[in-house]
Amino acid sequence: MSKKQFFWNIGSVVLILALVILLVEIKSNQDDIKIDRDKWKSIAESEQEIPTINSKAESFLNALNKAEHQEYLSNRASKKLEKELEEHYEDNHSHGDNGDQLIDIIHITSEKKDLNEASTSILYKLSYKSPFDSSETGVIDQRILTLMLDVSWIKEGNEYKVDKYSLELLEDNLDDYLSSLSKKDDNNE
């Protein structure tokens, strides 16, 4: 075998080896791209649930305002609520008829935390007339509260349920009224 033939054989083996390595690398990249594509497809499908979660959050807010929100709770949250009601039954008061209430949602936003978890924040105003409101006596007593409701959702079966929620009072028009009375008292002294 001549030197030329020997180098030709070595070159062919190196070329074939390089092509095999390149082919394996391309196949590996295709698998990675397919995995990434499937992951992003799943995330995109999951993000399409946001309008449904927003709608469900609005329904939950209305039910929560009437103390009829248990159907929206996850199994864990429902058990926790039942336990709290049992422990504090004597403190439990009836929500009954809350009169003319108006919920005005200022802003609602939901985001997916994971494929089966989401969170929602709702900034809203709650307006209602107190029992002292009477057009006959000329007393106008309307309470306006600005509140923030934060909700954590988990998927149970094919449906999102409330796992945790917190309600924060941001503003109360009664505070403004009492503050104005205090200022009047200070000016009268």
Quickly give the CATH architecture of the largest domain: Roll
Biggest sheet details: 4 strands, antiparallel
Number of strands: 4
Which word captures the global form? elongated
Give me the CATH fold name of the largest domain: Nuclear Transport Factor 2, Chain: A
Query: In total, how many domains does the architecture comprise?
Result: 2
Number of helices: 4
Coarse structural class: alpha+beta
What's the level 1 CATH class of the largest domain? Alpha Beta
The strand order across the widest sheet is 1-2-3-4
Overall pLDDT metric: 85
The proportion of residues in beta strands is 25-35%
What value does the Rg take, in angstroms?
31 Å
Order of helices and strands: HHHEEEEH
Oligomer type: single chain
Proportion of helical residues: 40-55%
Distance between termini?
119 Å
Summary tags:
4 strands, 4 helices, 2 domains, 189 residues
Concise structural overview:
With 189 residues, the protein is an alpha+beta fold.
Walk me through this protein's architecture:
By secondary structure, the chain is of the alpha+beta class. It folds into two domains: 48 residues; 139 residues, Roll (Nuclear Transport Factor 2, Chain: A). The chain contains four helices and four strands; from the N terminus they run αααββββα. It has a four-stranded antiparallel beta sheet. It starts with a helix and ends with a helix.
Give the helix/strand layout.
Blueprint (H helix, E strand, L loop, with lengths): L2 H45 L2 H16 L9 H13 L13 E14 L2 E13 L12 E15 L2 E14 H16 L1
Antiparallel strand pairs: 1-2, 2-3, 3-4
